Amino acid sequence: MDYRSVTLKVPQEQFDLVVDRLFGEGALGTEVLEEGREVLFKVYASADFKVPEDLSRFVLAESELKERDWNTEWKKYYRPVKVSGRVWVVPSWEKGKFKEPEGSVVIYIYPGRGFGTGTHETTRLVMRFMEEVLEPGSSFLDVGTGSGILSILAKKLGADRVVACDVQEGVEEEVERNAELSGVSGIEFVQGSVDRVSGTFDVVAANIEKHLLTPLLEEIFRRTEKTAVFSGILRSQREEFLRELERVGFKPVSEMGEGEWLAFLCRK
């Protein structure tokens, strides 16, 4: 079977919507090449795939791929990522080959539709905060779980109850697959946003772009017992986001940055 790759560049704030549209049209996978105010990425699909006409303005190039080329392209840019001193995120095809450092926490991810492969700054920032604050036996809520990477880390760090929620269709299967690859179980999945989740949690994490995250803050506050971690915030959005946090009752106690992105550790 032959495949097609399409290279696109879209404004960062439109990236999620464009990707959803492309998957709806039959895309099989994506590969982010450059991130910033614009996102340069490739879409992989079957040979007869066509980009919707209203999105054609974002297309930079198209090419045909033979099956063996597809496999090479898919894996070329995704390598093991060291998130912190002991946390690693490793692509699924490296399982059994990757030499896990002694005392490390290793998460295996198959890069599918859900966001969170460990290559993005916002994911790494949240994971570092989680490593600081998540205690064994605690409860954890992952809002907008994507690939399930944060929920898997929570389990690896000893969390007892872990709930992952996401509005995107098809995410549950990805979370299950990545959890199995990483050797964890017991992650509860809720289809929908945070308002569909019951109970409260010691730690809540949300790695979501600001325009999507802000409307959820009050509901996240209700679900938080002690600590919340937020990322997906650009440095240019810092002051406005801090005002939103304080408005709903969160007390920011620490922040970290990488590139143009920020993450915040908050107490209730």
Your description of this structure?
The chain has about 270 residues and is α/β, with parallel strands linked by helices. The chain folds into 2 domains: about 5-75, Alpha-Beta Plaits (2-Layer Sandwich), CATH 3.30.70; about 80-265, 3-Layer(aba) Sandwich (Rossmann fold), CATH 3.40.50.150. Helix content is about 30%, strand content about 35%. The chain contains 8 helices and 14 strands. It has helices spanning about 15-25, 65-75, 120-135, 150-155, 170-180, 210-215, 215-225, 240-250, and strands at about 5-10, 30-35, 40-45, 60-65, 80, 85-90, 105-110, 140-145, 160-165, 185-190, 200-205, 225-235, 250-260, 260-265. A 7-stranded mixed β-sheet has the order 10-9-8-11-12-14-13, sandwiched between helices. The protein has a 4-stranded antiparallel β-sheet with strand order 2-3-1-4. A 3-stranded mixed β-sheet has the order 5-6-7. The radius of gyration is 18 Å and the shape is globular. The N and C termini lie far apart (about 55 Å).
Q: How are the secondary structure elements laid out?
A:
Elements: E1 3-11, H1 15-24, E2 29-34, E3 38-46, E4 59-65, H2 67-76, E5 81-82, E6 87-91, E7 105-109, H3 121-133, E8 140-143, H4 149-156, E9 162-166, H5 171-181, E10 187-191, E11 201-207, H6 210-213, H7 217-223, E12 224-234, H8 238-248, E13 251-258, E14 261-267
Which structural traits does this protein have?
2 domains, 7-stranded mixed β-sheet, 268 residues, globular, alpha/beta, Alpha-Beta Plaits, 4-stranded antiparallel β-sheet, 8 helices
